[in-house]
Amino acid sequence: MLDTLRIAQVSPYGLDRYGGVRSHIRGLGEALQARGHFVTVLAPGADGILGSLPVVGCGRARAVNFSGSHFDVAWASAADRKHIGADSFDVMHVHAPWSPALPMQLAWTFRGARVGTFHDVAGRDTPAWARRLMPLGSAIIRRVLLDATIAVSPPVSVYLGRGTHELIPNGVELPAVMPSRAPNARTVLLYVGRLEPRKDVETLLRAMAMLGPHAPPLLIIGDGPSRVSLEAMQRSLALHHVRFLGAISDAEKWAHMREATCLIAPSSGGESFGIVLLEAMTAGMLPVAADNPGYRHVLGDGGASLRFPPGDVATLATIVRRVVGDCLWREAMQAWARTRCADFAWPGIAVQVEATYRRALQRMRR
Questions:
Q1: Which among 113, 184, 283, 292 could bridge 364 via Cys, Cβ 3.0 to 4.6 Å?
Q2: Within 10 A of 218 (CB to CB), how many other CB atoms are there?
Q3: Do both 47 and 147 map to the same domain?
Q4: Are residues 195 and 311 in the same domain?
Q5: DSSP 43
Q6: pLDDT tens string 210-223
Q7: Is residue 316 in a domain?
């Protein structure tokens, strides 16, 4: 039997907000727990619990907006570092090493095996100088701080470079029984995510306006800097069937996902993967998504009819009409979705990540 590992997963972001990194840390951590390992999450904010994972707070997060996206900057105090160092972890797994301060700070002082997962890609609004810097910056991070590197998707692999990392995707927890929708069930649309410019919720609202007064209801879950302007846009377009629910609990989020018909993810870019699409599939929803590289990787060729060009209001409205009116197509795509999300089940992903940890430990010991 392989040795039990003590693993620290480092989040650069506060765990009080939605995001793919948060979902990844929880899903991977709980899958590693199921394999008998001890997993602790280190994150800005207070001590607490993420699912079944203990959270140790490190510093305070301060919000920074850059190129239409949002990230947190946090710094661990000397007392935080001493407390963490006393836990004697075997592996420190830092997520999104690009994020300033906390992941790099903790990895720099850690003496065990250091593994980094890169989740980030450039968005449409990312400055040219930042795009040019990404390959060099990632090379410096890998060589100075990491014993092993993981990319979550081919778009991330592009700037990491061939032969420098392993490609291990995000995962998803599969329910014991995959849900299905009754053919005559009421259609409800859902958006789940940050409300910030690169998520392009404006395109979704314009598509709802194009559908007219008989459009299905749309629930918007999440919060962020764009919420005020989006609510103003909703009022100006008289979208009475659109509701903003704000940031709600995971339990409430999943309750809405199990009742809704279709999740819409309109991000114009900057998406390295698209874990929310997988979550939608496991809840029995159809995922309709903008055709950016990260979402394209998740949906693959089989989900081509669910994708629309970023910012294309008319095509998005056409797909929603098909979701509402074409029962045979909808049932066929729901069957495809149940099969597709099984390719990303967390137990298999956790086996790959654990193997990466053990190779990193071997390199570190040598």
A1: 113
A2: 24
A3: yes
A4: yes
A5: E
A6: 999 889 999 999 99
A7: yes
285: domain CATH number is: 3.40.50.2000
Q: Are 2 and 23 a contacting pair, CB within 8 Å?
A: no
- State the residue range of the domain holding 86: 6-171+345-365
pTM of the complete model: 0.84
Regarding whether 355 and 329 lie in a shared domain, the answer is no
Sequence-distant (≥ 6) Cβ neighbours of residue 159 within 8 angstroms: 121, 122, 134, 135, 138
Q: What is the dihedral of CA 108, 109, 114, 120, to 10 degrees?
A: -40
pLDDT tens for each residue of 4-56: 999 999 998 888 776 788 989 999 999 999 999 999 999 998 899 999 999 99
Asked if 98 and 13 sit in the same domain, the reply is yes
Query: Are residues 283 and 254 in contact, defined by beta-carbon separation less than 8 angstroms?
Result: yes
pLDDT > 90: what percent of the chain? 62
Element (H, E) at 246: strand 242-246
Distance CA 124, CA 236 (A): 27
Domain count, the chain: 2
Residues 6+ apart with CB under 8 A from 51: 26, 29, 30
Q: For residue 64, name the pLDDT band (cuts at 50, 70, 90).
A: low
Query: Looking at residue 63, what is its pLDDT?
Result: 67
Residue pair 109/75 in contact by the 8 Å Cβ criterion: no
Pair of tokens at residue 306 = 């669910």
Tokens linked to 86? 């006393």
**What's residue 94's pLDDT?**
94
Rg from Cα positions in the chain: 21
Helix (H) or strand (E) holding 342: helix 327-342
The answer for residues whose C-beta is within 8 angstroms of residue 165's C-beta and 6 or more apart is: 118, 142, 149, 150, 151, 157
Find the mean pLDDT for residues 325-353: 94
Q: Place 192 in a pLDDT band, splitting at 50, 70 and 90.
A: very high
Q: What strands, in cross-sheet order, belong to the sheet with 242-246?
A: 242-246, 218-221, 189-192, 262-265, 286-290, 307-308
129 three-class SS: helix
Same domain assignment for residues 22 and 159: yes
Distance CA 113, CA 221 (A): 38
